[in-house]
Structures are given as structure tokens and as C-alpha cells.
Amino acid sequence: xxxxxxxxxxxxxxxxxxxxxxxxxxxxxxxxxxxxxxxxxxxxxxxxxxxxxxxxxxxxxxxxxxxxxxxxxxxxxxxxxxxxxxxxxxxxxxxxxxxxxxxxxxxxxxxxxxxxxxxxxxxxxxxxxxxxxxxxxxxxxxxxxxxxxxxxxxxxxxxxxxxxxxxxxxxxxxxxxxxxxxxxxxxxxxxxxxxxxxxxxxxxxxxxxxxxxxxxxxxxxxxxxxxxxxxxxxxxxxxxxxxxxxxxxxxxxxxxxxxxxxxxxxxxxxxxxxxxxxxxxxxxxxxxxxxxxxxxxxxxxxxxxxxxxxxxxxxxxxxxxxxxxxxxxxxxxxxxxxxxxxxxxxxxxxxxxxxxxxxxxxxxxxxxxxxxxxxxxxxxxxxxxxxx
Length: 388
Description:
6-stranded parallel β-sheet, alpha/beta, Rossmann fold, 7-stranded parallel β-sheet, 2 domains, single chain, 388 residues
């Protein structure tokens, strides 16, 4: 079978779906990856997996209808040329425009993965509410042709049902995010001197960057040796944290901005605790990767985050947008560094048991009908259909 795997960046397909792509190819299927042009290193990594790669135009952040129609048109042409029997699409715009184009093109089997709700569902202003209405309409049209929709947490399923996006008959499957390659993200010795707190994520307000910066400022006054770091690519447009702001925070000594990288493992190795005070996630890869390497986590008690951190076991959960509570949670590690090793070991155990990318890939393959599910691992009704 020829399977089109559609994403918004080559590097994202490499980082998040390499294990699934490997499983597809191992099962004898032909894989066609579709991504925007401009990421030579990511393109090379995809081709090294033995897949065919083709480009399509995508304005990841823009709201220009002409550009979005151009994306749909380009995907329709690609699907008609390549004639895949199956589409697997992930992230917001590829899901919406990919599913619409696949339906127009007559792709027989369409699968979509909702990796998070994104900016449009943070409806705390009139502008965001308007974007939310438009996004809900587009999702409704796109997913009406999907055979199965994968979600990474139950809260997102509820949000889609409340918005009327999903049909009552839509098959909804809950899976453990994209999973983490537990072999690649192998355990590293705990680091406690100095205590180093690392936030890995794009420079977005919704990742909790303002709260992290304020918590770091408060803790630096009492614990000047503690380190607070941010690793992630800059963003532009609505909801971004400008580089100028990051530079100001760095200049006043509260945190260090490490820039962006294609390999987070050296930074996770040097960190003591992974922090993500996000407002909402699908299932946060940065936390799963840190867990796999034996790092405890501090996250918000938000959708997606609460799925990966058991409070008091492999880390702590704090209320949303509360820098005071965030500071107190991080301070617990400073006051008792033994928590780093103990909670980190629990995180590794959970990563192996529940978030291993091999298991996630097998689950997705089984749902898509690409491999036989081993006896005794059938999904429960709740796992397959979420909250009805």
C-alpha cells in the first residue's frame, strides 16, 4: 500500500514520526512524505529512511486565504499524481487542508492526528474567538471525510465534541501522543550541581514562558546558583514571545536562552528538571523525552500535561498561569536535590511502560489496518472511541 504522511515540517516528521514510518516500511508499505521545502537537513534524514519526499507550499502561521487555497490546490495535484491509498496527516493545517484535498482527490483512507488545539482554541479575546469559529468550521469539513481521528488526550476530544466538529459516528482513537524513542533518549546520570531547570519549547506565550521567567526571577533572589534555561526556536506572529523580550530576561540574569537545536539530548543531559508551564498541549514531547532520559518534570495541570506527569511521582503539577506556584514546585528540588534522581527514575519507568514510540506506532498501525495487533493488546472501548 502507498501511504502519504503529511506534516508541516520535515524536521517534525523526523522527530515525531520516524518510528511509525519505520514500522510502515517494515510492514512492506511504500511511504511518501509531504512537507514544505526549505529544511535540507530534515529532508536528508527522511530520505535516509528510504521514503519518497515531495514538497507542497504551506504558510504555517499565516491567515491568508489565498495562500491556504494554494496549499489545497497543490495537495490535490500531488494526490492525483501520486495516487496514495492512505493519508496520515498531523498538525493543524496539514490535517485541515490535507484531509480536504485527499477527499477531493479520492484518497480511499484518511487518518488525522490532532496533536494539540493551538492558538485558535485559546478563546480569551474577540479575535481569538473569531479564529476559533473559522478553525472549527474548517475542521468540521476536513474531518467529515476522515476514517479515524487520533487524539492525544481526552480533553481535546471533549473540546472537539463541544464545538460540534466531530460527527456522532466519527471513530475517535486515543493514543499516547507521538511516543518517545526510549532507546535514543537513554537514561543519563542525574545532575544536581548546579540545579538546572530547562524549558524546551517554541517561544510562545502559551508554553508558559512569562510564568517561567517570573518564577525564575523570584527564585534567583534566594538561590543565585540555580540555573533557568530556555531551549527552542523563535516564533513570529500572534502569541509569540519576541527575541527582544528573551534578551531582556537574559540580561537581567533570571534565565539563559540557549537558542534552537536539532538534537535536544545534550541539553536534557545537562538539566536537572524539565519544566513546561504550558496552557494546553496534545501530549508534550519535551516532557516525554526528558522522562525517558530520567529527568523529573514540573508542568501545569493542563490538558496533555496531566497525562504525562503523576503529581508527586515523576514530578509536580501546578495551576495554570501561576508563577508563584511554579516557583514553589521548582524550589522543592532545590531544597531536596535527592528528588531529582528518585522522580527521574519514576519518569523513565513511565516512559518505558506507557510512552514508548514502538508501542505507540504499533497501536496506530493496528488501527489503520496495517499490522496485526498482538493477542491481548486490543484497545478498550474508551481507548478507541474516547468520550462519547
